[in-house]
Amino acid sequence: MTIGLKIACGLYAALMAMLGARWWFAFDGIAAEWLVQPLAAQGVNNLIADMGALFLGSAIMIALGLRRGHSVWLLATALLMAVAAAGRLYGFATQGYIPAVLVPLVIEIVSCALLIATHRQMSAEK
After folding, report:
1. Residue 20 in 3-state DSSP?
2. φ and ψ at 69, to 5 degrees?
3. Measuring CA to CA, which residue among 74, 60, 95 is closest to residue 5?
4. What is the CA radius of gyration of the chain?
5. pLDDT tens, 50-69?
6. Distance (Å, rounded) from C-alpha 54 to C-alpha 57?
7. pLDDT confidence of 17, banded at 50, 70, 90?
8. Alpha carbons 52 and 45: distance in angstroms, whole number
9. Which domain holds residue 56?
10. CB neighbour list of residue 113: distance below 8 Å, 6 or more residues apart
11. Cα 112 → chain centroid
12. Could you give the 3-state DSSP secondary structure of residue 106?
């Protein structure tokens, strides 16, 4: 069971790395896909830095947790995903429900559960 969870986490880390790389190296494309329009160069810089940090940082933490066997890194990433999901719920409460945002919310919740389950399984094996 642990190997399956680790593979799923590894695939999720690859997705996070690809998204982070797109925020850094293909900003215009991902900004258009995600319907994000910065007002000026400072906005572009903020999005590149912050979104890149979220996704690349998540990928790095998952990789550290899997490679070194320190599954607490998976919990750190799960916390980021939980906070992102909470932000989406706050957005629903303040801006209204947006159906297009439901899929990312589900992904954040499922990834959070996956990361926590993998941490628990890895911890139980020690």
Report:
1. helix
2. 80, 10
3. 74
4. 16
5. 999 999 999 999 999 999 99
6. 5
7. very high
8. 10
9. 2-124
10. none
11. 9
12. helix
Q: What local confidence, expressed as pLDDT, does residue 33 receive?
A: 95
Quote the tokens at residue 80. Answer: 């980021």
Quick: pLDDT tens for 74-116.
999 999 999 999 999 999 999 999 999 999 999 999 999 999 9
Query: What total of structural domains would you count in the chain?
Result: 1
Tokens of 113: 């559960």
**Identity at 12, one-letter amino acid code:** Y
Per-residue b/e over 11-27, b at no fewer than 16 CB within 10 Å? ebbeebbebbebbbeeb
Q: Residue 111, Cβ neighbours under 10 Å: how many?
A: 24
Whole-angstrom distance, CA of residue 88 vs CA of residue 95: 10
Whether pLDDT at 31 is above 80: yes
